[in-house]
Structures are given as structure tokens and as C-alpha cells.
């Protein structure tokens, strides 16, 4: 990762004893420390409502680092942990934030640190409004002697109204430029590579429009169920959990116009234009434009798998979707008439995230008369696993005649053996430390995506006739999703194929 060192600062993590801090944040900050990308002077202050001593908290983080990192350097671990501190703070007790303020001031004095602070909300969403208010009550958001930044995890609201209310609470005490709405999906190297692929290669940009592209398809599949998160998932569902943030922002990168520069506001201005150009899906169109499903009990590789309604914390008559597929259009000069398809689901055959650009077929099926079929070209952008790019083209099959076969031209990030691919949280944390908000969601983009999805949520809540289709766990979702994308010679791309009962092969 070639990035500049950040300014000296304090990183305050709320919810520091939780899973996100333990598995992602502290390991990512440690990686930045190992790479020499953290400031010369910094402190990491964990805080939560648990009564940990500083040594107990460091012991917990040390255990996490040993579990997450293969053979970590013991000296570097101890050097890093010497910068890690802890303070009890009860999020709902405004008075306890006075103790947090005193701890911050003590660290600034003893560690020679300026008044530059990041507050990371690694907490349940119901605290996203409360903690910033309590920080502001102590003046901990003021930027007189240094900057203050607030990182808010998803979900940013549960619908348009709740998102607007949360924004109203935040903007009462914080400026928009201080608020960093994090989406770890955008920190993945291949998502960012969409911009480079488009705007650094002269062969793609002239073709990146309705004249040459037939459709765009984005898939985010997981091969596990909701695990122990049934209670959370009941309140969220696939539409809120994946589409409102991750996948629509991927659409923004794919469909945006070239920005005036690579500055954060220039890029985010263009993605907002995309979201605002999405054709609204009217209530009466929801049933024909959106398919929702829920995984059913099945046997996968000899193992019985529970259905969603059998999971812990899930209502036995739940209508919460674990699968969503939708079709929509972007009404502007570049994309008019080109359908965009998005699907996401739990308990699908494998874990894969990718975008597929389907180019239009040649206007004259020259080789079909000779018994060959003209295949459409596809550009496949694989986000995970095995990050990379794949371009499908037709070539002549060796031998007599003009039989055409499809071959792949591909690039794998794993082939760059000398270059390390940073974890998404590493990139995003370092960006915030440097004040770069390019890969963070701005409030107008958040509201635009909610405005698009609100009619779907409303229709599901008010139209009992809209079905929730079942699909056996381990399959590619309800059959009705094939109808959504269906047409002559059109179907969802199934990127992975079962080679045997022992494994799955993903083409890239």
C-alpha cells in the first residue's frame, strides 16, 4: 500500500470489546503499524461499558492478533499494544463521557499528541445518534485546535425516514465533512479498480454506454446462512444489508461519468448523479421488478442445513428476505434503455462477488450460418474470491472451418506475488486518518439510495400478495429470478460450477 503517513492523532473506538474491533479494527491498525503507515505519535483508545483494566484489554487484543495474524512479530505486537489504552464509557450515560474527555486529555499530555481525533462507532446502530450527541455535550466534536472525525458503520438508517432522522441528529452537532459513513465493501481493491479499468484504458471508455453494452449484472453470493445473527437479520434482510449500501455503490462506480479529478468530492459528485438518475420503481411495479426469497432446509454435501425460519432468533412465520434480485434502469444519456440487474443471497452455492458487463452481440451473426454461435463478449470484475478481471472473447477453434469458441483473457491479483493486497478496513481506516473521504458515503448518496428502495420496502409491507419465494439452501435462489432476467439467450451468469461433492470451481 503506497500511502502517506497520517498526522499524529488519537483513534477512539466505541464498542471496543466487541467482535468488529477484535476481528477487524485492531488487526487492521496493527497491519498499518507493521507497514510503517501509522503516525509517529498515535494512541488507540478503546472504550465500552465493560469494566476492563488497560492490561485486560491489551490481553484480549493480543489474543486476537495472534488468532488473526499468522506468526505475528512479537516485538512489533508489544510495541503496538503499548499505544493501546482503555476507558470505561457507558454510551447512554452522558456523565461517563466526562471521564472519556479526561482520558483523552491525559493521553494528549503523556503521549505528546495534538487534538486530532477519530471516533469509530463499532456499536449497535441504535447508538449511532446517542454517542455523537454525548460527545458533543462535552465539546469533543469541536475543531478549534485540531480536526475531529466520526466513522459510522452501516446500516445508516433502516429506511428513508429513519436515515433522515439519524442525519438530522448528527448534523445538529457535527459538520458533514466530519462524518465518514463506512462501507467496507468499497475498501476492496477490485472495487476501486473499476475506476482504473474504466478511466485508464482507452479501449473501454468509448464502449462504456448504451450503444455497446447490453446489460450490467452484479452478484453478491454467500454460501452460509445467517449463522448466529438471526435476530439482527430479522430487522435487516438482504435488501437493507447488502443492496442499499454495497451493491448500489458498486453500480455508482460502474455507471458514473468521468470525474473532473480523483479528488473525493469530484468522484462522489458523479456517483450521486447516478443514484439520482435511477428510474423510480413504482409500488405497482415492485412485484415484476423485484424477486425476494428465503432459503429452505436442504442437504448440502451430506450435511443437513436449517431453513431460515428454523434459525435462532428468527420468527417461525418470518417474511424477511435472505435473497433479493432486482431490475432497474438509469435514465441518462449514457445508460438509457440498458437494464441493470442486482442479486444477493445467503446459502447460495458459493461465496462470490462480481460485476459482469455484457456487451451487445455483433449485429450480423456471420458464423451462425456455419454452425457456430456468436457469443457475447463479457468483462467480469471479480471482487472476491480470487480478485481480478476476466474478458471473454471468441476465437476460431483449431481445425477446418470457422467454428467459434469462447476463451478467457484474465488477470489475477494473486499473480502479483511481490505486492500485498491490503484488507478493506486497512485502506478505509488509513483514508480517514488522512482525511480522504472518497470511499465513504456522503449523505446525499445515502438518501438517494434509500429513495430508490423505499417503494420496495413500502410495497412489501403493504401488499400481502407479493410472495416470498422459497429456495433450497445451496441453490442459486428462486426460479422466479431467472424470469426477471430472462429473454432470448439471456440468463444470470453462474460463475461457479460444482466439480464434485468435495469442492466448487469458480471461473476467473
Low-confidence stretches: 498-508
How many helices? The count is 13
Q: What is the approximate shape?
A: globular
Strand content: 15-25%
- Category by helix and strand content: alpha/beta
- Rg from Cα: 24 Å
Based on DSSP secondary structure assignment, what is the total number of beta strands? 19
What fraction, in percent, of the residue positions are helical?
A: 25-40%
Strand neighbour order, sheet with most strands: 16-15-14-13-7-12-11-8-17
What does this structure look like?
The chain is of the alpha/beta class. The protein is built from 13 helices and 19 strands. The strands form four sheets. It has a nine-stranded mixed beta sheet. A six-stranded parallel beta sheet has the order 3-2-1-4-5-6. Strands 9-10 form a two-stranded antiparallel ribbon. Strand 14 (378-384) and strand 15 (388-396) form a beta hairpin. It is globular. The two termini are 24 Å apart.
Amino acid at each position: 500500500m503506497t500511502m502517506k503517513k497520517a498526522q499524529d492523532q488519537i483513534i477512539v473506538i466505541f464498542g471496543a470489546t466487541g467482535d468488529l474491533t477484535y476481528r477487524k479494527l485492531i488487526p487492521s491498525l496493527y497491519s498499518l503499524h507493521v507497514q510503517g503507515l501509522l503516525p509517529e505519535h498515535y494512541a488507540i483508545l478503546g472504550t465500552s461499558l465493560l469494566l476492563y483494566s488497560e492490561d485486560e484489554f491489551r490481553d484480549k487484543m493480543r489474543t486476537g492478533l495472534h488468532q488473526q495474524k499468522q506468526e505475528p512479530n512479537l516485538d512489533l505486537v508489544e510495541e503496538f499494544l503499548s499505544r493501546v489504552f482503555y476507558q470505561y464509557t457507558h454510551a447512554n450515560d452522558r456523565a461517563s463521557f466526562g471521564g472519556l474527555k479526561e482520558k483523552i486529555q491525559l493521553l494528549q499530555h503523556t503521549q505528546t499528541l495534538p487534538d486530532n481525533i477519530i471516533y469509530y462507532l463499532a456499536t449497535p446502530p441504535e447508538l449511532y445518534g446517542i454517542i455523537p450527541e454525548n460527545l458533543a455535550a462535552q465539546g469533543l466534536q469541536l475543531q478549534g485546535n485540531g480536526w475531529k472525525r466520526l466513522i459510522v458503520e452501516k446500516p445508516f438508517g433502516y429506511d428513508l425516514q429513519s436515515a433522515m432522522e439519524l442525519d438530522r441528529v448528527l448534523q445538529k452537532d457535527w459538520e458533514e465533512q466530519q462524518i465518514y459513513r463506512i462501507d467496507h465493501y468499497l475498501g476492496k481493491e477490485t472495487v476501486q479498480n473499476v475506476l482504473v479499468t474504466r478511466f485508464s484504458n482507452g479501449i473501454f471508455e468509448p464502449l462504456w454506454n448504451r450503444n455497446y453494452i447490453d446489460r450490467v449484472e452484479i452478484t453478491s453470493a454467500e454460501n452460509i446462512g445467517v449463522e448466529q445473527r438471526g435476530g439482527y437479520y430479522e430487522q435487516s434482510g438482504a435488501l437493507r444489508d447488502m443492496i442499499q449500501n454495497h451493491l448500489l455503490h458498486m453500480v455508482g462506480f460502474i455507471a458514473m461519468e468521468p470525474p473532473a479529478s480523483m479528488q473525493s468530492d469530484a468522484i462522489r459528485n458523479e456517483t450521486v448523479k447516478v443514484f439520482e438518475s435511477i428510474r423510480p420503481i413504482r409500488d405497482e411495479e415492485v412485484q415484476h421488478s423485484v424477486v425476494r426469497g428465503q432459503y429452505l432446509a436442504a442437504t448440502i454435501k451430506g450435511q443437513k442445513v436449517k431453513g431460515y425460519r428454523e434459525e435462532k432468533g428468527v420468527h417461525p412465520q418470518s417474511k424477511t428476505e435472505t435473497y433479493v434480485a432486482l431490475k432497474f434502469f438509469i435514465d441518462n444519456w449514457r445508460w438509457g434503455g440498458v437494464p441493470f440487474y442486482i442479486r444477493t443471497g445467503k446459502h447460495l452455492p458459493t461465496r462470490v462477488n462480481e460485476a459482469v458487463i455484457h456487451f451487445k452481440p455483433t449485429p450480423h451473426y456471420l458464423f451462425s450460418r456455419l454452425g457456430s454461435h456468436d457469443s457475447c463478449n463479457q468483462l467480469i470484475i471479480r471482487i472476491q474470491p480470487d480478485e481480478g478481471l476476466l474478458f471473454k472473447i471468441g476465437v476460431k477453434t483449431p481445425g477446418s472451418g470457422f467454428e467459434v469458441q469462447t476463451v478467457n483473457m484474465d488477470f489475477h491479483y494473486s499473480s502479483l506475488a511481490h505486492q500485498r493486497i491490503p484488507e478493506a478496513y486497512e485502506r478505509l481506516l488509513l483514508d480517514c486518518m488522512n482525511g480522504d473521504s472518497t470511499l465513504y458515503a456522503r449523505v446525499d448518496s445515502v438518501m438517494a439510495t434509500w429513495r430508490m428502495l423505499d417503494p420496495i420496502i413500502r410495497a412489501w409491507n403493504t401488499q400481502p400478495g407479493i410472495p416470498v419465494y422459497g429456495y433450497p439452501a445451496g441453490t442459486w435462489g428462486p426460479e422466479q429470478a431467472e424470469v426477471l432476467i430472462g429473454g432470448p439467450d439471456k440468463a444470470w451468469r453462474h460463475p461457479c460450477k460444482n466439480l464434485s461433492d468435495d469442492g466448487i470451481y469458480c471461473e476467473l
